[in-house]
Amino acid sequence: MRPVRGPVRPRPRPGARATPAASLLLLVLVLTGLLPPAPAAAAGDVTTEDARVPVGEGDGAAELDTTLYLPASGAPAPAVVLAHGFGGSKQSVASDARDLAGRGYVVLTYSARGFGDSTGQIGLNDPRSEVADLSALLDRLAARDDVRLDADGDPRVGVAGASYGGALSLLAAGYDDRVDAIAPQITWHSLTAALFPSQVGEPAADTVAATPQAEDGGVYKRLWSGLFFGVGSAPSGGLLGALGGGGGGAPAAADLPAALGSVDPATVDPQAVEQLLTCGRFTPEVCAAYQSAASTGTLTPEVAAVLDRSSPSTVLDRIDAPTLLVQGTQDSLFGLGQADANARGIAADGTPVKVVWYAGGHDAQASEGTTADLRDQVAGWFDWHLRSADDPARGPDPGTGFSFPAPTGVTASVGTVQGGSRTVTTAAYPGLVGTEAAQRSPVPVDGPLQPVVTPAGGTPAAITVVPGLGSLASALTGTAFEIPGQFAAFESEPLGEAVEVVGASTIDLAVASPGGSATLFAKLYDVAPDGTTTLPAGLVAPLALSGLSADPTAPSTVSVTLPGIVHRFEAGHTLRVVVSSTDQAFALPAEAGVYSVALAAGGNAAALAVPTVDGRSESTGGTSRWLVLLGVLVALGLLGWLAAVLWGRRRRARVSRVEPDGEDVPLRFTGVTKAYKDGFVAVRDLSFEVRRGQVLGLLGPNGAGKTTSLRMLMGLIRPTDGRITVFGHEVHAGAPVLSRLGSFVEGTGLQPHLSGRDNLRLYWAATGRPAADAHMEEAIAVAGLGAALDRPVRRYSQGMRQRVAIAQAMLGLPDLLVLDEPTNGLDPPQIHAMREVLRSYAATGRTVIVSSHLLSEIEQTCSHVVVMAKGQKIAQGTVEEIVGTGGSVLVGLADDADTDRAVAVLEGLPGVAVERTDEGLVADLDGTSRARALQALVAADVSVEAFTPRRRLEDAFLALVGEEA
């Protein structure tokens, strides 16, 4: 259950300036009404308060990390509690909180126990812990003067959240009647049914996505459960440090207390330590349930007790808070059937329920437009149900209808979606109390009885669902992942007209198994006329079957509910029902077997019952609207022409601006910053210059911004701010001055089927420059591959590929050579040779830039160094300046008889102190240069065999960036 982030408004690129064209475009959009209204309060008007809140008692005590977002008005206002997804924290919902506070709500966010900076153990929304924690937070809201109250101790409050937070909002409404409205998103009804599904039997209701669930459990959802437990088990904070911080291996449980450092080993319970190592942040009860399920793949009463306790299904009849249920159509963790069951349970007692399906879920992130719309719907739900009738911000009644993304099909080109982004709405969710039953249309399918083999251990297995990635099969060709012999298929005739499936289809099968039981997986494929197959949303229906007939001639009839989907099967397409014996996302039987699968109706034909929903498509329509849009398009065309003119002028001005010292300064960074849309700043205000003839080493730990800087230098990406010049000309994509630059950054890029020589020739031919200018023989000499140069690159070792790539960068003998980690894969003699090549190359008046993690190589190869950390330059200078002119040196003498004289010479220099060691003399120069000390020894005819700095570049580097980095 991954954290589901709320919609994040795009941040302006730092340093970006509005052009006249952009300003005019903004004016056009505002005047035509195509921009949404501004929020009630600017983000800057919202203030925050952080607090640590103690909750629980005894062994169940914890401390929650909370943030309260306060609107600008200061008057008593309704409150909203935002709960985060599993693995997230209060930061996961910060943008949603600020948006709601801007609309006038007091918004409380917090990290649930066991997550973020909160303490305590994860109980899976246990009513005794996580739900009780929320009630304690409502007590705090009720004590505030700026929160509107319904009664003493009863705040006017709504609760919203996604996934883990969505289940918490449902449970909170069931256990605490002070909750006035809820908006749970992509969450579960029964955690037991979600993790042990079996879609066998007649649906429980006439709703569009009603999904049956066997009482004794189903097929264990192995991959999702493992991902879920892995997120919660990962150690954090002091425990992570005690375990080595992810490197070097973890100590044994008995040694952990000592590894914690500040903890007295005598006060640590070894069993508690073992619990931390085994279960991370989970409670022992939850940990034991997972270990049981993971090892056996079966649902035991003990496991069911843990999962049922955390399931909203146990409290739906108590919920009287108006509920907005939001569920995703691309969700293999919590499918549409989970929201369907929640809607039925809450509406059964007359509580208002609105159901919204959207294109997204745990397997696919929603689009920015969809995310913004969902945010507005949640806010609108709270506006109506939390604000007073006389509040001008209350807004319209959102009703209790049903909306879903308009069904779209897939064309013969895999992955090409037809149609636009539309939403269909109806007055009510079909099949709830007081509404009409869902419509179902029969689609005949046929096919013979077919044997289905299950392999021993379930391997190899079909691949359909990849947790968090949705349908891998739909992204490629669906049939490629069904294993021959492991499935049965039943097909319809090509459709005479399109069929829009909204919900879960049903079909009756006839199944026989020699052992009386079977684990199967049912799927509904869309087959195009050219044979292209698509598995909508990558969803499958697990079937845990027992009590089956062993006689294929008298099989057992099984009613199957297929996955809930929203999909349009186009005219000419075929519906294919596939029943397979394996799926890599689920636990599978260890024993091999052969089942027989057929259609249950007489003969080879049966009817697939597909749900359909008639509704109103919400889209921009109307003649006047289209005229406005046409006008906007014309305006955009004019704006585009104006922008092109302005950009051309700017570019010409930029190209004509050449720095006068450009030939002496081959490279100059001036205030360069690179920031991304998500706010991450890879490089910040970087300034340095490289002179002709220098070999510059670019140093820094991983993530320092080195490669990003090199990519900007080559024109591959644009800086957000600042200026990069090569030989006085500003760099941009396609800049002519880049022809004077040779580079090797981020991979060799060699064609494996060609020889090394042909790769070099092909690369140079692509430049369009004369072959005579390539200096091919000089570059080949650098590669030093001999006869191997004419063998295919796919036979090369990593070091051989590296040498060819460096030779490629040197083609044409560029004036500026840029190399990223050039010695990777080279052996010591090759590294030594590379060092000599680079130094001699710079000695010709050219310039070399080397980015490397091998600090000793930088020290021996480079004349100058720029040290970076966290995107910023922290030091620049010659290697001598970075290492330091003073420090200590180790003096080795060829003749021990010279020892006393050497000591006297050195101690005669200003500030020098000498110590005799087994290695030799260690002289602390204290400001005297090493060159002067060595000259004094040579002048005194002392036989110096070694004169080695005791402080290396590595020492200086660690001192600058910090050993931890």
UniProtKB/TrEMBL annotation:
Keywords: ATP-binding, Hydrolase, Membrane, Nucleotide-binding, Signal, Transmembrane, Transmembrane helix, Transport. Residues 1-42 form the signal peptide. Coiled coil: none annotated. The chain crosses the membrane at residues 626-647. GO terms for molecular function: ATP binding; ATP hydrolysis activity; dipeptidyl-peptidase activity. InterPro entries: AAA+_ATPase, AB_hydrolase_fold, ABC_transporter-like_ATP-bd, ABC_transporter-like_CS, Galactose-bd-like_sf, P-loop_NTPase, Xaa-Pro-like_dom, Xaa-Pro_dipept_C. Pfam families: ABC_tran, Peptidase_S15, PepX_C. Residues 667-895 form the ABC transporter domain. SUPFAM superfamilies: alpha/beta-Hydrolases, Galactose-binding domain-like, P-loop containing nucleoside triphosphate hydrolases. PANTHER family: ABC TRANSPORTER, ATP-BINDING PROTEIN. Belongs to the ABC transporter superfamily. This is ABC-2 type transport system ATP-binding protein. It comes from Geodermatophilus pulveris. The lineage of its organism: Bacteria, Bacillati, Actinomycetota, Actinomycetes, Geodermatophilales.
